[in-house]
Amino acid sequence: MIPVIGGLALNLAFGLSIVTIILLSFHLRTGDNRLYFSGQRAALAVSLLSFFATFVLAQLLMVSNFDVDYVAHYTSRETPTIYKITALWAGQSGSLLFWLFILSIYAVIAILQNQRSQQKLMPWVIIVITTVQLFFLILVNFVTNPFIPTEADFVVVNGLGLNPLLQNATMAIHPPMLYLGFVGFTIPFAFSIAAMAKKEMNALWMKTVRVWLLFVWLMLSIGIILGGWWAYQELGWGGYWAWDPVENASFMPWLTGTALMHSIIIQEKKNMLKFWNMILIIITFTLCIFGTFLTRSGIMSSVHSFTASSLGPIFLGFVFFILIVSFTLLFYRKTFLRSEKRIESFTSRESGFLFNNVVFVVMCFAVFWGTLFPVISEAVRGTKITVGAPFFNQINIPIGLVLLLLTGVGPLLVWRRTSRQSAVRNFMIPVSVGLMTALILFIFNMRGYVLISFTLSSFVLTTILIEFAKGIRSRMRSQHENVLVAFWRLMRKNRSRYGGYIVHVGIVLMFVGFTGHAFNSEKEFGLKVGEKEHLDNYQFELLRLSEEERPNHYAYIADLKLKDSDGKTITILHPEKRIYFHRSPDPNRRQPHSELDIYTLLNKDIYSIFNAIDTEKGVAYFKIMINPLVNWVWIGGYIFIFGTLIALFPSKKESVV
Question: Could you tell me the residue ranges of all domains in the chain?
């Protein structure tokens, strides 16, 4: 009975979404406010029914109701409670319902928050949001319903269980954060379409869009960072980014969203780039839907993606619908979006922001082309040509270094025009520090992109430190404050600007971590108990092999003693080789999985993977990796998030610069 109620809630939400669009469309034609309030309430009801349906599915997962096909496929009685919850977004239909659930949360917030302040725009905003909800309601009602009963001639006493790769604590956070980012771009997109429709792009619209953009961009950023952490901790290959198609699907809207976050500053400050910013908003939202298409269609082979399904053409049709409607409206409003001012100088801060935008878009196109090329080649030539990490690295590392350079150049430029004297004064110290860094690195035999990356990192950090120093000195002179008070009040008064600088510090530290990959070393070997092996300046000795049966898997556990070059014991590593669904009589159902162990230092990780075990010979096979500087990726990520949180809530009186 409960699954039927969940399905009925989705049916009602589908019908009410159509009613909402009809009511608000008639309101726009007649101006009758009764129709608007009725449509608004219908829109809220659509969201509430979507909440209810999601809670029903979550409850079915928690109680292991295997009469529902989705529950039987993604949980089992042995599945831990936390992973029964994460099963909500582990499968096709559940993840689409979760998409709808997140969008409904955003819809309720947007409607209630702006019903008084944005009265002219809200009818259009609600229509756009409800149209997106309607699309997903069509999917979960008629294409891949999560409440479909299990088709079996017998009573299902246990489910198939959750994929072992997804049984990781990070997967309880990573997908929701990605969804909060992906889905959240619907709201600024809706406000932008409404602004074009009503020709209303005032300061209030700008503030609303800016806050939404910054928040959802932060959520997407956290999701991407957590995805890298999950890959590093769970997949056992020692990396955090493989240019996987589904990774790229989240990265592309992040790139265009980042470009938009920069260029919207120019629109706020100089009332320029309005047309360009509308293009970026449309492209970013479209890439979010396109990324969902890549994940759900099955056309891409990925550890993250779902199996082939009939959703591909439907999603692709919706992508084209968005593009046609949005760019048609953009064409008819091009005069309204024309900027009155022009960039006056190539050496201005406006020019730096614009060039930054162009580089972000170029990188996005490179990722887009590399991601789709295998599909295009198969469609045109009948042969799928795989594009792997080497291609993406070769193209995107130089582009990334250009972006790193621009991160340091931007703050040194001034609005309108940077004079020669200002340029020399502003660039002298950062460039000198960068050149000294390059010389030292060259002496230590560093070459290529390693040399360039570390040099640019020192250049950018110097630039940011100088900016902070200028602001602190200015407050100390004008307000007679000490250093700490001046720093604190500088941050409070200019959260947007200095929060952005902290974000840039985080990005620099992440680049340092990325560059450390060039120094990685690894070795694979087999050991019996008591045997030893060496890698770099470390010794690995297998002390013991043990076995343990747990509720949802069987584990072989290795105790691996780690010693330094002086023979001093550093730690005992405990990598595991697990067999999930080990009780299944079908050998094909049993899934081996390596649960790695990592010893972390500030400057490196010692990464141990238990690859296999030969129980007859008593030999355990390991892969050991030494990953220098990798922790600076995560440290930089924390600083990145901290800076964004500061910038998210600018003080009322601060300038947007």
Answer: 1-167, 520-632
